[in-house]
Design a protein that fits this description.
about 260 residues, alpha/beta, five-stranded parallel beta sheet, 9 strands, binds adenosine-5'-triphosphate, binds magnesium ion, CbbQ/NirQ/NorQ/GpvN, CbbQ/NirQ/NorQ/GpvN family protein
Length: about 260
């Protein structure tokens, strides 16, 4: 299988500009990667695509504030045959040489995230305190973290000593023509409908200045496309998939409904 000749199981990913080559270099040079960007803009899809392209297994961990070091590294469990050690997902990734993707890493407590430090610098080691072992990362192991900056994150941020271990990729919504191609492909709709949805999305994103805290992501535009493709009337689909998820505020909902009406006449 050649990289330029995508196999049928290649995840669909439309490149924005240079991120594929940059990621490949990071992988080759054993550099950890941080993907920053708003919800639904393609971070997870990019990692899935890169794992496929680099032919590495992908192990994804969703971070939350109860996540403990044991959840990542592993724990002793009591079974029929006595007590046995069970690797956590991070340890499995380290042993297998997988790409380990920690989604929404700022949700994890800082004392949990510290376990990543020796893995994300030249040491490439995972010390397992509970067993006394130190596992060297297999070739191909790569740490990738994602987060959504400026998202009610006044109190939560990463320590500088964590941040500075990663090469950062800035993600954002693609330019309109590219976003329309993505919506058409993923929503399985005609290009003209995809363009109309992206035009609506662009207008709705401008409501940020009028207080809309969450603006529509590519994911929401795709959801609307799928509903319309399934036969739901355009206005209903846009309301259910785009307007209602974004706000409960009557004035903003009204403004968004008006934009939907003006976009599909
Ligand atoms: N560049 C792209 N190429 C192909 N599909 C894309 C691209 N960008 C976005 N998408 C589509 O948008 C959807 C949402 O993207 P994805 O799940 O990767 O977002 P995300 O940035 O990981 O969001 P979150 O922060 O909420 O996890 C994908 O399932 C895919 O259909
Ligand atoms: Mg994601």
């Amino acid at each position: 299988m050649s990289k330029d000749d995508p196999a049928p199981d290649a995840p669909y990913y439309l490149e924005n500009g240079g991120e594929v080559a940059l990621f490949e270099q990071c992988h080759r040079r054993q550099l950890a990667v941080m993907l920053k960007g708003p919800t639904g803009c393609g971070k997870t899809r990019f990692v899935e695509y890169m794992a496929w392209r680099l032919q590495r297994p992908l192990i994804t961990i969703s971070c939350h504030d109860d996540l403990s070091t044991s959840d990542l590294v592993g724990r002793f469990l009591i079974g029929a045959a006595g007590t046995a050690w069970h690797d956590g997902p991070l340890t499995r990734a380290v042993r297998e040489g997988a790409i380990c993707y920690l989604d929404e890493v700022v949700e994890a407590r800082q004392d949990t995230v510290v376990v990543l430090h020796p893995l994300s610098d030249h040491r490439r080691m995972l010390p397992i305190d509970k067993t006394g072992d130190t596992v060297a990362a297999a070739p191909g192991f790569q740490l990738v973290v994602s987060y959504n900056p400026g998202y009610q994150r006044m109190l939560k941020d990463m320590k500088p000593s964590t941040r500075q271990r990663f090469v950062a990729f800035d993600f954002d919504f693609p330019p309109p023509e590219r976003e329309a191609a993505i919506v058409a492909h993923e929503g399985q709709v005609e290009p003209s409908l995809a363009i109309a949805l992206v035009t609506l999305g662009t207008r709705l994103r401008q409501l940020r200045d009028r207080g809309l805290a969450e603006v529509p992501s590519t994911r929401l535009l795709i959801a609307a496309a799928r509903l319309i493709g399934g036969g739901i009337p355009v206005a209903d689909a846009c309301y259910a998939a785009i307007v209602a998820p974004l706000s409960d505020e009557p004035a903003l909902v009204g403004a968004m409904r008006d934009l939907v009406g003006a976009s599909f006449v």
